[in-house]
Write a structure and sequence with these properties.
By secondary structure, the chain is mainly alpha-helical. The chain has a domain at 1-140. 47% of the residues lie in helices and 8% in strands. The strands form three sheets. A three-stranded antiparallel beta sheet has the order 1-4-5, with no helix packed on it. It has a two-stranded antiparallel ribbon with strand order 2-3. A two-stranded antiparallel sheet has the order 6-7. β2 (18-19) and β3 (26-27) form a beta hairpin. The longest helix has 31 residues, at 225-255. The relative contact order is 0.13.
Length: 293
């Protein structure tokens, strides 16, 4: 069952109390236990698997669809290669990483959420994703699977930063005119430490890419973990802003209320989700790196 395996935007954590709706909330009245935690731009602190049924239907849809978009892409036989005998619609998690099989969204979502999310919600989500799908194979699946040595973590951060650079580079920018207001339109753009739901302005995108380049250079030159963490802290607000924008866009899409601007951007939603998930993994890796330093 895929629900018992790691994937993007999902890690296993130990808790020491009864699960609440968020990963960092519990009541200390029971024995320690492990549970899967799902992360998204709407719930950056995460939500435990056992808490999913307690969320509103809309929040359940966002969590499930965010996870789907973070882990799957339309099936491409050129990427997928031969099937090696695996039957169609057999999920096959972890069985053949270099030979993904074509899957339907219904199969995928039910394998992950059937026991915690209402079937009507899952089938409604599946209808939004017709056709055949396959696992995304890069970057690596999960921070949780990363070897816990300093050198291995540095290599994984470098690999993920390269992917993050490509992800942000491929995103469109927010037109300057949308960010201006008042007489003459001469007000400055919003400060970079905001997490308002929007795309980046051209200058912000340039700054974000420059910070990624500095982080990558720091990794390759053997800079201290604290120096790398300092650069990453400057970059995190951009990731948070884009993640929140993706969460708002996904919420509008699920409600069928996407306006013209949103409908033009909906094609970038998987890229935004995967970018945010990659950034969240980098954050966790850097925390671990600092702890080892």
């Amino acid at each position: 069952m895929s629900a018992n395996r790691p994937s993007r935007g999902k890690v296993s954590r130990q808790f020491s109390g009864t699960a609440d709706t968020t990963a960092d909330a519990f009541v200390a009245d029971s024995l320690p236990y492990y549970d899967w935690v799902y992360f998204s731009g709407r719930l950056p602190k995460g939500v435990t698997r056992r808490a999913l049924p307690m969320l509103s239907p809309e929040s359940q849809m966002v969590v499930a669809d965010w996870w789907f978009l973070a882990n799957f892409e339309p099936f491409d036989h050129a990427k997928g290669g031969p099937y090696f005998g695996f039957s169609k619609d057999s999920v096959g998690f972890g069985q053949a990483p270099f030979a993904p099989v074509p899957l339907t969204a219904s199969t995928i979502l039910n394998a992950e959420f059937a026991d915690v999310v209402d079937n009507a919600i899952l089938e409604g989500l599946a209808a939004r994703h017709p056709g055949e799908w396959m696992h995304i194979t890069s970057p690596p699946v999960s921070f949780q699977n990363t070897p816990q040595t300093e050198e291995a973590i540095r290599q994984d951060i470098a690999r993920r930063l390269e992917v993050l650079e490509q992800q942000i580079q491929s995103l469109p920018i927010r037109p300057e005119a949308i960010n201006r207001h008042g007489i003459g339109g001469n007000y400055p753009p919003s400060p970079v430490d905001t997490t308002s739901p929007r795309l980046l302005l051209k200058a912000e995108k340039t700054e974000a890419l420059a910070l990624i380049s500095e982080c990558r250079s720091g990794i390759s030159s053997g800079a201290s973990s604290k120096a790398i963490a300092g650069l990453w802290e400057k970059l995190k607000p951009y990731i948070a802003s884009l993640g929140l924008f993706a969460a708002v866009l996904l919420g509008e899409a699920l409600k069928g209320a996407v306006n013209q601007i949103g409908s033009d951007l909906i094609q970038h939603l998987p890229d935004l989700v995967q970018m945010y998930d990659n950034g969240a993994n980098i954050s966790q890796l850097i925390k671990t790196l600092v702890g080892l330093g």
